[in-house]
Fold this protein.
Amino acid sequence: MTIDKENIMPTFDEEQNAFQAGYRLVGGIDEAGRGPLAGPVVAACVVCRPDTEVDDKILAEIKDSKKLTERKREELYDVVHRSFAGVGIGWCDHATIDRVNILEAAFLAMKKAIGALSARPDFILLDGKFPLPNTSLPQKAIIGGDDLAFSIAAASIIAKVVRDRMMRGWHDHYPVYGFDRHKGYGTKLHLERLAEHGPCPIHRKSFAPVKNML
């Protein structure tokens, strides 16, 4: 049977399972920016408690950031900050990505996001198949977690909004690439501008086709 991912809605089931196991602060973690040719990778950790209450209307709107319009993500960014017990954000720049590779940079951004919280979670849920390495925190990695777990979906929105804002800022420095439109992803426009102008300082030198131009 084929699963229609577009119609899957995140639930609180994973968080409730952690609460029932005795954990009090559960953090959902996701990142944005693994695939682009330029800019940082950004991670967010959104923390909920057993008494976290979210309006049903909001619950129905929060989902994987890729399923939302930019306008809706911006609206929900503020909602998530108001509704959850804590929101932490961390990122690694293009230079770090080139130095340690994108997966390790994403993990480092996640650890920075946890470290940015005033109240450290005692259990974390991560989107993806790989657990966060070198941490003492109990955790669960969930493939497709941004489709399934409410806190991970909320984290995906925060990470995406923060990264998009950063890329719009970089557009002001390097306007010829159109970072405000494609946010560094390898779109037709981006590849055309890259071929015309060559890489700029925030392009990831370890990513093809950028590395082939150096």
In short: The chain has one domain: 7-213. The mean pLDDT is 93. Strands lie at 26-32, 41-48, 86-92, 123-127, 139-142.
